[in-house]
Amino acid sequence: MKKTILLISVILFSLQLSAQTNGDTIISNNPKNLKLKVLYFHITNRCNTCKSIEAHVRKTINENFKTELENGTIDLYILNCELPENKVISEKYDAYGATLAITKITGTTEKTEDLTNFAFSKAHDETIFVGELKIKIQELLKN
């Protein structure tokens, strides 16, 4: 009986893993309006800190920049850098693990700022993380 329960548990767990999607999020609505790309890269197996960073980035954008996201002023990328389909963009941003970057777009020029150190240092305080990232994005949108 124990062997049967164990076997069923293993099968159900395997089915659950195979049913998961890659979890990537790309929100890009209007390339003509684009001023800023917010990119968070992660690996497949993530610690709680990495999961918190993603949650804080999503919260910052969804609560403070929903209009900009909808009209295409801001693009949001949440990407697994270990997946083959994300290899080119991951290499462009030197993302081989958890990486937070913001790219300012002016005409045909792109300038990227790596915010990974900020993200890890503030990940355990959602209020500070969201507040400081919000200010950073507002500053970049103004200039």
Principal-axes geometry comes out as: globular
Structural class: alpha+beta
Number of E-type strands:
5
Distance between termini? 67 Å
Helix content: 40-55%
Q: Can you walk through the features of this model?
A:
The protein is α+β, with helices and mostly antiparallel strands and 143 residues long. It has one domain: Glutaredoxin (3-Layer(aba) Sandwich). The protein has helices at 2-19, 48-64, 66-71, 87-92, 116-122, 126-142; strands at residues 25-27, 36-42, 74-80, 99-106, 109-114. It has a 5-stranded mixed sheet with strand order 1-3-2-4-5. It starts with a helix and ends with a helix.
Summarize the structure.
This protein is 50% helix and 22% strand.
Please give a handful of descriptors for the protein shown.
143 residues; 6 helices; globular; alpha+beta; Glutaredoxin
Reconstruct the topology from this structure.
Blueprint: H1 2-19, E1 25-27, E2 36-42, H2 48-64, H3 66-71, E3 74-80, H4 87-92, E4 99-106, E5 109-114, H5 116-122, H6 126-142
Parallel strand pairs: 2-3
Antiparallel strand pairs: 1-3, 2-4, 4-5
Helix pairs in contact: 2-6
